[in-house]
Amino acid sequence: MDDEEIVDLYIKRDENALRQTQRKFGKHINNISRNITGSALSAEEIENDTYLRAWESIPPAEPRTYLFAFLARIARNLSISLCRKRSALKRGAVIVELSDEMQECIPSKLSVEDETDANMLLELINKFLFSKDEEKRNIFMRRYWYLDNVNEIAKRFGISESKVKTTLFRMRAELREFLEAQGVRV
């Protein structure tokens, strides 16, 4: 079943939408959550919560052409919220590590109240990523959106861990330069 048909089921309030969503995206949603929380049990709970949030959000949202991205964002946000609630240093280490990696190329004090600046930053990052070849873009997204570790990324793309690390290092530096050239204070 394609994404549009699944979204139509949500709009019709047909509970089959949940089964179809789980069948098509369940494994991926669970992996995203497990990568962030480090817990299979938490990932399972977040997967179910993701379906509930989707049920509550569709309609009015109609993510016909980006259903997986819509669900992945929900799962990612729920997972990060869970980690923040736990507030244990050990469980939050992955997020802290990634934040440290990215702090040199993303403005550290982005005002939450200033939604316009946040949207501009999002557009600039997207522009930067789409200027890169598909492999680099995918490596970057797997690391900083899906929170995959370097080893998993290397296996996924059939490249060495060293190449993944080098690619990420160079892309962070290029992103910083790109943002500075666009007038973003880093």
Short synopsis of the structure:
With 186 residues, the chain is an all-alpha fold.
Spans where pLDDT lies below 50 across 5 or more residues: 88-92, 108-113
> What would you say the CATH architecture of the largest domain is?
Orthogonal Bundle
| Rg estimate, integer Å | 18 Å
CATH top level label of the largest domain: Mainly Alpha
Q: What's the order of the H and E elements?
A: HHHHHHHHH
Shape field? globular
Commentary on this structure:
The chain has 186 residues and is mainly α. The protein has two domains: 86 residues, Rna Polymerase Sigma Factor, Chain: A (Orthogonal Bundle); 85 residues, Winged helix-like DNA-binding domain superfamily/Winged helix DNA-binding domain (Arc Repressor Mutant, subunit A), CATH 1.10.10.
Key attributes of the depicted protein:
Rna Polymerase Sigma Factor, Chain: A, 186 residues, 9 helices, Arc Repressor Mutant, subunit A, mainly alpha
Which SSEs are present, and which pair or pack?
Layout: H1 3-11, H2 16-37, H3 40-57, H4 67-86, H5 93-102, H6 115-130, H7 134-144, H8 150-157, H9 161-181
Helix pairs in contact: 1-2, 2-3, 2-4, 3-4, 7-9, 8-9
